[in-house]
From TrEMBL:
Keyword Transferase: yes
UniProt signal peptide: none
Organism annotation: Elongatibacter sediminis
Protein's name according to its UniProt entry: Sulfotransferase
SMART domains xref list: TPR
Keyword Nucleotidyltransferase applies: no
GO molecular function, one term: protein-tyrosine sulfotransferase activity
Keywords for this protein: Transferase
Superkingdom classification of source: Bacteria
Amino acid sequence: MTDSGGTPAGGAVAATGWFRQAVQSHRAGDTGAALQGCDRIIDLAPSKQALAAAHNLAAVVLAGQGRLISAAHHIALALDACPRDPRLHAHSARIQRSLGRYAAAAEAARSACRLEPRSGTRRYELAHILRRANAPAEASNETLDEAESLVRDVSGRDTSLANEASLLLAEIMLDRGEPEKAADCLRAVVDRDPEQIRAWAMLAELKNGPHTGPEAEPPLERLADTADDPEDRATALFAVAHLKLGRGEDSPAFQCLRQSNALRAEANPFDPEAWEHRVAVETKFAATRHPGAEAGGVAIHSAGGRAATGSGGEDRVFVVGMPRSGTTLCEQMLSAHRQIFGAGELTALEIIQAELLGQQSGESSVHNPAWTLETARQAYLDCVPPQAGGHARVVDKAPRNFERMALMFDLFPRARVIWMLRHPLDTVLSCFMQDFGPGQGFSNRLEDIARVYAGHARLLRSALRRWGEAIELVIYEDLVSRPRETANHLAAFLEVPFDPAMGHPERNRRRAYTASSEQVRVPVNARSVGRWERFRGELESVSKWLAGEGLVEADGRSRLLAYLEEDSTAGPRSGA
C-alpha cells in the first residue's frame, strides 16, 4: 500500500482523504475546491462505491449552486456505478423534480420504492412527485389517484409520517375540489398535534366548518408567540393577517404582516444592490448586444450563431412580470384554449443561466457537460412536460424570466412574450401580503419590493426597444375588467383563433400551483384593483420613492405607461 495511490489499496486511501477534503470544502462554501476533489476521485476511480460517492457529492455541490442540469448528469453517473442504491435514486428524483422533469422524477422515485419496499419515506416522496406531475392535467386523472393511494398507505404503515401524509392528502383533496375532505385531513393533524402550524394555516384558508376560518385564529395567534422556529411564527402571522383582512381589520392585519415579513427577511436576506447590478447588466445586453455573441450576459458557443428557422421557438410563449401581477390568471386564460398548453412556472431558463455562469466562473467539474446554444436549448425543452406535444403554443409562466430576456431570445429568437403590468402600489402591496415562503426574498420589505418593481420597469423599457415586436403588454386592470376583450387580443397576438373558453379561465380544470392558485378558481373580478388606497398611510414612504422614480404620480396614480416612453438610457433616479 502507498499513500500516492499507486496500488488499489493506496488509491482507496487517497480517495477517502480527498472525499473528506471535498466534503469540508463544500461545507465551507468553497465550491471550486469541492468539485476539484470530486474530479480527483472520479479520475482515480478506486471502486464503484467511491465513484458513486464522488459523483453524488458533485451533484449535491452543483445543486446548491442552482446548477441542477449538471447535478442530474452527475447523479446519473453515480447510478451507473451503483444502480441498486436507493438513496441515489431518491436523490435523482429530488433533482429531477426541481428541474420540473416529473416523469423522470417519478421513474427515479419508483426505483427507490422498489429497492426499499418497506420505506414510508420513499412512498411519500413518490406521492409528492405524482401530485405535482398532475399539474398540467385535469384534477381527476389516474396520476392523482395513485398519489392518493400512496399517501393513504403511508398513513397506515408509518406513524412518524402521519402528519406529513395527512397534509399532502389535504392538498390532493383541494386539487380535486373537495375542501370538506381536505378539512377532515387537517383536523386529523391538529387533533394529533395541536402545535402543527401548517395545518392550522391551511384550515384558516378554508371558509367554513369546524376548525376553519376564524376558529383557527386563536391557536395561530398563540403559536405566533410561542413557536420556537421563526419560520413557523411567520407562517402563523401570515395566516392571522389574512383572517383579519377578511374582516376588514386592515391596521392590525398590516401589523401582523410587518412582523411576519420581518421574520422572513432576517432568515432570508435580500441584497437589492446585487440584484440591481444584475438588472444593469441585463439592460445593457438588451440594448447593445449583437446577435449570437452571448446569452444573458454569459458566454455561450454556437456553431451556427442564431437558431435555425426550424428551432426558432415560434411555438414558445413566455408570460413574465412582477409576481402578483396577474401572470397565473393570464396563463389560465391562455391554457383554456384547445391549441395552447400551459406548462406552469418552469425553472429551466433560471437553471440554464446558472449553468452558463458556473461554466464561465471556472467553478466546475471537468466531468460536467459542455454548454453550447444547442445544448442549452435542448436542456430547456427537456424540462417542458411531454403533454405539451401537439399544441400550437406552449406557455412558460415563470414571472421573473424578465430577468433573463437576452438568454430567452438567444435560445428562441422567434418566441413571443406577454408582459403583465399592474399598478405599482397594488403590486408592492400584494407581494408584501403574500406568504411566498423563502422563494422571493425581496418580498419581505416594502422598500425592496419597490426597488425590484423599478428595476423590472427599466428592464421592460430596454426590452421594448430591443424586441418590441415580440412583446405584448397586458394591463392587469384591463384583464380583470374586460377579460373577453383581452383574451381576443391575446389570441390575435399568438396567431390562434379566439376560443370562447378563454373568457372564463375559472372553468379551466388545469390545476395551478402558484401563490394565485385559489384566485384563478373564481370568476374574473376586479376586487383587488386599487386595494393600495386602503393602505395609503402604510405605503406613504414607498409611494414617495416610486414617484421619485417616475412610476407613480404624487397622489399615487400609476404613470407606468408614460415611464416606458421615456429615455431608457437613464439609470435609477434615487436610492431606497
